[in-house]
Write a structure and sequence with these properties.
Blueprint (H helix, E strand, L loop, with lengths): L1 H11 L19 H11 L4 E4 L9 H8 L3 E3 L7 H11 L5 H5 L4 E5 L29 H4 L2 H14 L20 H7 L16 H18 L4 E6 L4 H9 L3 H15 L5 E5 L4 H4 L13 H13 L3 E2 L2 H17 L2 H6 L3
Parallel strand pairs: 1-2, 1-3, 3-4, 4-5
Antiparallel strand pairs: 5-6
Helix pairs in contact: 2-4, 3-13, 4-9, 9-11, 11-14
């Protein structure tokens, strides 16, 4: 019986550990930790989306429509830089399908600057390492797994329903959650800090994370274009920064990160945070950072035509100045005076 189960799991391979998807079978793709490594290793793609939940609402069909790219979404909700590094190691592994059969033309990386202060080895969630390593012995945790058999093989087979890979990992929020009432009802303002943080507070760890987890892939793959972007958090994110009294340190952190990326000819840097009509309208958000899928579509259009791309440090300084101006002019007092 175990041999039969093993053969079935290997044949269908719902986590793509051994091969890509088979024609005619319905695959449910909803487990980032378990399915991303197999997809990165065995799917057919020439570009990928990397990053946190800020990237889950991209539709890969949009990248094909606008840029002619066969794009694979490899997001990790709450990703730290080490999470990005772990999956990029597989993407650029010489034995991966993409590496052997296609050029990896582009990587779209959503960069959450707050996570750059994490330890260089810190990951958001514990990984099922038997799906990441090359040890065939521990594959029994996959091959003889009740959830794999019932939830990822039998259930989709019976229901005749799989995941549209273009929309894989999309957030559960539906349209009615993107409104100011929902956002403000669930928003918790952080405790105010009296002492201002040192302007250079975040620089050392940010530099270490870039050096260890991100920039080696840029340097070692000069023919791959890296589209690095700062996601458009709502104005409430900046209220958090002000309450915690590290606005200058945060601005310096953005400046430092941009300076590092702009050193490379194969990096396209995009700054979306100062889109005033978007970030100041909380009807575009489901919480203080997560935005509507329509904004993901707009960012894809920007990747295609260069809108919001930053090409020099002088330009980036202008973008940060614009962001400062938006923060200074925004009436936080009025926002918090309303009962939601």
């Amino acid at each position: 019986m175990l041999a039969a189960v093993t053969a079935l799991v290997i044949y269908v391979d719902p986590f793509f550990h051994y091969h890509g998807p088979r024609d005619g079978f319905y695959y449910v793709v909803d487990n980032q930790l378990s399915q991303n490594p197999g997809m990165a290793r065995n799917m057919d793609y020439d570009s990928c989306i990397i990053g946190s939940s800020m990237t889950v609402n991209f539709h890969t069909d949009d990248f094909y429509e606008l840029m002619g790219l066969n794009t694979l979404k490899l997001s990790y909700s709450g990703a730290y830089p080490k999470d990005d590094s772990n999956i990029l190691n597989i993407v650029f592994d010489k034995d991966s399908y993409a590496r052997k059969n296609n050029d990896v033309k582009a990587v779209f990386l959503g960069l959450d600057v707050p996570t750059l202060t994490a330890d260089v080895n810190e990951i958001k969630y514990e990984l099922p390492m038997y799906l990441y390593d090359d040890n065939p012995i521990n594959d029994v945790k996959y091959l003889w797994n009740k959830d794999v058999l019932l939830q990822y093989i039998m259930r989709p087979f019976i229901q005749k329903k799989g995941t549209n890979l273009s929309e894989a990992y999309a957030s559960w929020w539906t349209d009615e959650y993107y409104n100011i009432q929902w956002v403000m009802h669930n928003y918790e303002e952080p405790q105010r800090v009296e002492t201002e943080a040192d302007k250079e507070l975040f620089i050392e760890q940010t530099g270490e994370n870039l050096k260890v987890n991100i920039l080696p892939f840029v340097e070692e793959n000069p023919d791959t274009q890296f589209y690095v972007f700062f996601p458009p958090y709502s104005i409430l994110y900046w209220n958090n920064v002000i309450c915690e009294n590290h606005l200058e340190a945060t601005m310096r952190q953005y400046e430092f990160a941009a300076e590092e990326f702009l050193k490379y000819d194969n990096v396209h840097l995009f700054y979306f945070q100062n889109m005033e009509e978007v970030v100041t309208d909380l009807n575009n958000y489901a919480d203080y950072t997560h935005y509507k899928p329509e904004i993901n579509r707009y960012m894809t259009e920007c990747f295609a035509d260069g809108t919001h791309e930053v090409r020099s440090m002088e330009q980036f300084e202008d973008e940060l100045s614009s962001m400062r101006d938006i923060i200074e002019r925004f009436d936080f007092e009025e926002l918090f005076s309303v009962e939601y």
